[in-house]
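Quick illustration for those who missed Monday's session on complexes.
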Amino acid sequence: MKTIVLKIDPEHLDLEKIRIAAKIIRDNGLVAFPTETVYGLGANALVDEAVLKIFKAKRRPADNPLIVHIADKDDVNFLAEEIPSEAEKLIEKFWPGPLTLLFRKSEIVPDVTTAGLATVAIRMPSHPIAKILIEESDVPIAAPSANLAGRPSPTSAKHVLADLGGTVDAVIDGGEITYGVESTVLDLTAKPPTVLRPGPVSVEELRKIVGEVEVHPVAEAKLPAEKAVAKAPGMKHRHYAPKAKIIVVEGELERVCQKVQELADARRGSGKVGILGTRETSDRYRADVVKIMGDRKDPRTIAKNLFKLLRELDSEGVDFAVVEGIEPAGIGLAVMNRLRKAASHHIVQV
Ligand code: TXA
Ligand code: MG
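Prediction with magnesium ion bound:
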């Protein structure tokens, strides 16, 4: 299959190109598109045949449910069965934006979309291209991250093409994204509401709006998900796995820096050794490859670069990488969740 690439400037939307993509969605094809978090791989969420193509293209296990994307808040009413009172407050505050909410699903959502679960994950993205694509398609769009299963999520069209070029109908290249980590997933069918995946909307912000909020052990990702009792079936799958073996070092910064260098030194000579540090610390490190994730004072910069750097470790043939942990608060919890998973939970606490 030839994948068409539609380059669109998010600030000057080219309706003609958007309509080409929307027609593909309506014809049950696959379109990858930018959202404010990561690039997604979209198909009509209400048609089995279309949704099954997503699973096939990504080589995604059929028991890992998809997020349904909408462009109008009111669409929740026909996709979800019970809308708890917290939902209204959260929607008011965070939609459109990087918060996915889990509800009991309505009849019209096919079982393939939710992997047979009784719940449906819904999100209203704020990215102008995502919004207009959903509007022009005139259907809700199921969209997981547009990577091959087990690879880091794509934060550019280039990443999407590397994983899915030739297997999807179209990729919209809308340039850079805002956050770089996937949306926060909040289960509103649990009491209290429970974060299943940390993301750009922080636990602290959620608590300000709805009071008590729990953080599921899979969201912390300190333990392998099998052990954390995957409530979210999808969460048990291995994610964000680069080819390099990764170790994350967490704790007090000075000791972290020492330990990072010590672990890198211990591997010297046995393959290519990499270190992922931060703006404030990377000068101190010596290894075959040293990369700066971002600024500790502004963890959003770290979130934004993270997946790109994990891909670079692979493309540069790094065999072993040591990563400096950051404080697991705010968007930092999302960063640490992705890093701990990329490290297959190889965490050194100092
Ligand atoms: O930011 C994002 O959320 C991106 C963009 C494209 O919107 N999408 C994304 O989708 O990250 P995906 O499929 O890569 O991750 C969705 C996560 C999976 O871990 C899945 O298991 C979980 O949400 N999920 C989806 N529906 C669920 C449900 N009904 N119950 C529990 N977990 C669910
Ligand atoms: Mg994904």
